[in-house]
Amino acid sequence: MTNAGIDRACGSAPSQEEVLQQLERILSSPEFRLPERAGRFLEFVVNETLAGRRDYLKAFTIAQAVFGRDANFDAQQDPCVRIEAGRLRRELEHYYLTAGSADRIVITVPRGGYVPVFDVRQDIEDADVSSLDKNLSLYREEMTPGGSTSSGTRPAGPRRAGIRCAPDIG
Fold this sequence. Notes:
Largest sheet: 2 strands, antiparallel
Number of helices: 5
Number of strands: 2
Number of domains: 1
Distance between the termini: 18 Å
Radius of gyration: 18 Å
Helix content: 40-55%
């Protein structure tokens, strides 16, 4: 995922409240299409990071807390955490390309670990986000069960809007 519009040099970090609101926005979005356990995974790593326990976010800890593995869990023999982390990363990227494209707070889980990163997009104002949320709600109300709008046209999906989607490997 590109970092367009994300300003890390400024040192601006979102508040815990903003991060938790963004987490809820992601988990409640229809564009976040992973099973419940992926949501638990994201919720767990975000909450542990906010609680200051980022150093404990290892495969063993996540396997026990999120996937219910016992004390005999061996990350070398059971890649469940690595596989789910890869799926989560791809789904977060999809979310920020679609429903979250105007979100001010960006949550990512960089490769090589399980500690989430919280960034602020400097080019998006809070007022823009609330107006886009309102527009998205109006758009969803207009949708009919057949996948077209009440005017009979299909909505522009990622491919129709010129966004290239990565294949889902998994």
